[in-house]
Design a protein that fits this description.
This protein is of the alpha+beta class and about 450 residues long. It folds into three domains: about 170 residues, no CATH class; about 70 residues, DNA methylase specificity domains (Adenine-n6-DNA-methyltransferase TaqI, Chain A, domain 2), CATH 3.90.220; about 180 residues, Adenine-n6-DNA-methyltransferase TaqI, Chain A, domain 2 (Alpha-Beta Complex). About 30% of the residues lie in helices and about 20% in strands. The protein contains ten helices and 26 strands. A hairpin with a 4-residue loop joins strand 2 and strand 3. Helix 1 crosses helix 4 and helix 6 runs antiparallel to helix 10.
């Protein structure tokens, strides 16, 4: 279960009466709801009242004062001390209204003008417009709720007042704690998303007021709010630690890569054959550079990639016949530019590359590299490098590319091209040292 799923689970348990225990001494919510209805009748705000009950067949019905009833699909089992009621019973709802462009500005004159989800960030309000001609005013302490555009953003108004546009509704309640209302609305929006398969065009005033909310006794509501806050605080801490851990791992891996290509990950061995000596013995007359981006240990050289490679080329067109799954007829993987599934596109009848090689993404996730040991076909802006194995190990070459391109380094260019890659300067240690670097690096990152 990830953190998002944990939060959803906490909300669901809270609304189903499963988050905190019930206590007999706290009674039921029946008396609380009667008090609310009587209070509303005194203010002439009460509508036709109803009760929600489950019949002997386990079906929930809403029974109205006039004797009519309707089946209620959205009801569910709740503790005996709880009652369902419509949200209209326990809240007062203010619907927003848009202003004309000449009625507001970004100058701090008048009162704030809140237009929609763009004013909400992590439960806080961002104020960037003001008006001297307010028409629909939310008051300090109101729970603001977005009902159009991005649905379900919520925040408490911590200013004396603000004008709200039609994408926002303001909720207040004299008898039910607004934090409990907020918990229900989190549940309500999630249920709407599930039913609508994540796409909710909007929530109407009637939909919101008609939503059925389970009401626990007042003291239990307060305990539920406290329990949810505690769980969410814990979730926030876990999420922060996960982000820090992920960032730490990325930073540590980047540091290890940079140490590796600078000759600082392991000590040098004077008995290793130097790269220059190896080039002479192989009669390779490549370009050697005295200076590079950083200093190298003795025995290492700066050279371009074409000097130490057998082949550097770009992927071609995709084969005419492609299978989405591997079969006896289509056994060879096709790899395209991209990091998802290591770039796997499908399978072909023939392989274009049969040597062990490194593929490098030339667009998108620039520099993303993968060691390929099996025959395959490269396509779509994928660069293939077949190294000279007498000079450079395939795994070390990947370490170099990871060091250059990990965490956004070196990605200021819009794309990699074969000419660019051929001229890329590479720090090359002796072959034996490369093997030791690979072994130590693999051991270190295995523990991350």
């Amino acid at each position: 279960m990830n953190i998002s799923e944990f939060r959803t689970s906490v909300i669901r348990k809270a609304i189903y009466g499963e988050l905190v225990p019930q206590y007999k001494e706290e009674g039921t919510s029946t008396e609380l709801l009667q008090q609310i209805l009587e209070h509303k009748k005194e203010k002439k705000k009460a509508k036709v009242t109803s009760t929600i009950k489950k019949n002997s067949n386990g079906i929930f019905y809403e029974y109205f004062e006039d004797g009519s009833l309707r089946e209620v699909e959205e009801a569910f089992d709740i503790p005996d001390s709880w009652n369902f009621t419509s949200l209209s019973t326990v809240i007062d709802l203010t619907s927003g209204r848009d202003l004309k462009s000449n009625q507001y500005s970004d100058e701090e004159m008048g009162i704030p003008y809140l237009t929609g989800a763009s004013n909400f960030l992590n439960g806080e309000l961002i104020i960037n417009r003001y008006t001297n001609e307010p028409a629909v005013i939310a008051l300090k302490g109101d729970l603001l709720f977005t009902v159009k555009g991005t649905i379900g953003e919520m925040a408490y108004l911590n200013l004396p007042e603000a004008h709200i546009a039609r994408q926002i509704m303001a909720i207040r309640s004299e008898h039910i704690p607004l934090p409990y209302i907020k918990i229900f609305l989190d549940y309500y929006v999630e249920e709407l998303k599930i039913k609508a398969r994540s796409l909710i065009p909007g929530i109407s005033r009637d939909d919101l007021l008609g939503a059925l909310i389970p009401i626990p006794p007042l003291q239990e509501q307060l305990r539920i709010v406290k329990a949810v806050e505690t769980c969410f605080t814990f979730a926030d801490l876990v999420e922060q630690r996960q982000m820090l851990t992920k960032r730490f791992k990325v930073n540590l891996q980047s540091a290890l890569l940079n140490e590796a290509i600078r000759g600082k990950l392991i000590p040098q061995n004077n008995d290793d054959e130097s790269v220059l000596s190896k080039l002479k013995s192989l009669d390779i007359k490549g370009e050697i550079f005295e200076d590079g981006p950083f200093n190298l240990p003795d025995g290492w050289i700066w050279t371009n990639l074409k000097t130490i490679s057998e082949t550097i080329k770009a992927g071609g067109d995709k084969p005419k016949e492609v299978s989405s799954v591997k079969t006896d007829e289509f056994p060879f993987p096709i790899y395209a530019n991209g990091a998802k599934d290591n770039g796997l596109y499908g399978y072909s009848k023939e392989a274009k590359i049969t040597e062990e090689s490194l593929t490098v993404s030339a667009r998108g996730t620039i520099g993303f590299s993968v060691v390929r040991r099996e025959p395959y076909t490269p396509i779509v802006r994928l660069i293939v490098i077949v190294p000279n194995r007498n000079l450079i190990c395939l795994e070390y070459l990947k370490i170099v590319f990871d060091a250059f391109y990990t965490d956004g380094n070196g990605t200021s260019i819009p794309q990699l091209t074969v000419p660019h890659v051929k001229e890329k300067l590479i720090p090359v240690p002796p072959l034996q040292e490369q093997e030791r670097i690979i072994a130590v690096y693999k051991k270190l990152i295995a523990n991350l």
